[in-house]
Amino acid sequence: MRLVLLGCLIALLVLPVRAENPTPYSGTKVIETGQPFDAFIKKLTAAIGSNKMGIVGNACATCGAKAIGVTIPGNRVIMIFNPHFAVRMLKASEAAGIEAPLRLYVTEQPDGKAHLTYRLPSHVFGAYKVPALDKMGKELDAIVARIVSQATG
Fold first, then answer.
1. Helix crossing, 83-92 with 131-152: angle to 10°?
2. pLDDT over 90, % of the chain
3. Average pLDDT, stretch 126-144?
């Protein structure tokens, strides 16, 4: 009986995990890129740089899983920002500092294609109800839209 229960537990652990609500926050965008995961990551990285945003961090769940001998589909969070926006953000609201950097979440789907998920900067910073952050959020919306357009085009 213990062996059967252990087998059931292992089977549950290897099943793909799916959230009940894939976009729990307002202003969340999910883009089906139609591109292979690795190729999209390269295009996205180039688009980030060409729009004068810096990559300030890169979280790679796929890499972490591989380090412990587990293979999972491509999974990357690319964190982007620009020091000029950081200065403006902090001048408007020190509390808003937790929102930087912005995160672009790229996941590999079963067909090998990449999905991109991100929250609109105007929604991220809009929660603070500070006019200067509202203005900055809209500017960042336009920049992120250009990045997405270039990477998916």
1. 150
2. 83
3. 98
CB 116 within 8 A of CB 149: no
CA angle (132 as vertex; 78, 30 as ends), nearest 5: 35
Quote the DSSP letter at residue 99: G
CATH architecture assigned to 23-152 = 2-Layer Sandwich (3.30)
Residues 6+ apart with CB under 8 A from 57: 77, 78, 79, 101
Q: Which of these, 104, 131, 107, 108, lies nearest to 119 by C-alpha position?
A: 104
Helices 131-152, 37-50: axis angle to 10 degrees equals: 130
Euclidean distance between CA atoms 103 and 55, whole angstroms: 10
Q: What is the pTM of this model?
A: 0.84
pLDDT tens digits, 47-85: 999 999 999 999 999 999 999 999 999 999 999 999 999
